[in-house]
Amino acid sequence: MSYTSNKSYTLIPPHGGYKKLESYKTALIICEATDYFCKRWIKDLKLSSQMNGAARSGKQCIVEGSLNSGTSKKLEIKLIGNARGSFGELLEDYEDFLRFRKLKLWEKGEPRVTAIRRIAYLSNRSHESYKTHLDSDDPEVSANTLICLINQENFLLDRQLKSLESQFLKEGGITEKMYQARQSNRLDLRGGWERKNLRDRKEFLKNEKASR
């Protein structure tokens, strides 16, 4: 179950609903698929560890960014940027895998690439949705499937970063909101005292007039 903050807060907005993000859903599939791919096709333990580490790092940065979004937009943007970097590194590993083994890197417009990309539009998609491709006995098919997934993930993260940047420029971060809240509170207190003083003065004048 994903964590979502109490929506009654006004200063700190709702945050932590990362499991609803398409970037997280795709990252989870990539993470699980990379673990399976490395166990089956990567014999170098160091490379296997690095690839799994990049996949997990990308996913966890999305989680951490979402959980911190309520109190630090700056940190959220940084972490989503880190996720983008991790998946960029993982993409290079899969492309290296194909190149070193003289296997073909599929072109974006090929029908088989289009077929894989369309799976992204299925509801409740998971690792099982790509099972036919990922479990193929041909490593070229498995690697290219993951490359398709990572390219889609990078697109989602780029779009997420752009949205976060726009939101930050428009609304600011928690520091600006705290300052605005303090200023608003001070004005409310000042207005309250001024109204009280005005009432007290009217009461004084009324009593002064009555005593004459």
Kindly name the structural category: mainly alpha
The number of distinct structural domains comes to: 2
Largest sheet: none
Summarize the helix and strand pattern as letters. Answer: HHHHHHH
What is the count of helical runs? 7
Shape descriptor = elongated
Protein name: Four helix bundle protein
Organism: Candidatus Woesebacteria bacterium RIFCSPHIGHO2_01_FULL_40_22
Tell me what the structure shows:
This is Four helix bundle protein. InterPro entries: 23S_rRNA_IVS_sf, 4helix_suffix_dom. The protein is mainly alpha-helical and 212 residues long. The chain has two domains: 18-171; 173-212. The chain has seven helices and no strands. The radius of gyration is 27 Å and the shape is elongated.
Short description:
This protein has 212 residues and is an all-alpha fold. It contains seven helices and no strands. 73% of the residues lie in helices and 0% in strands.
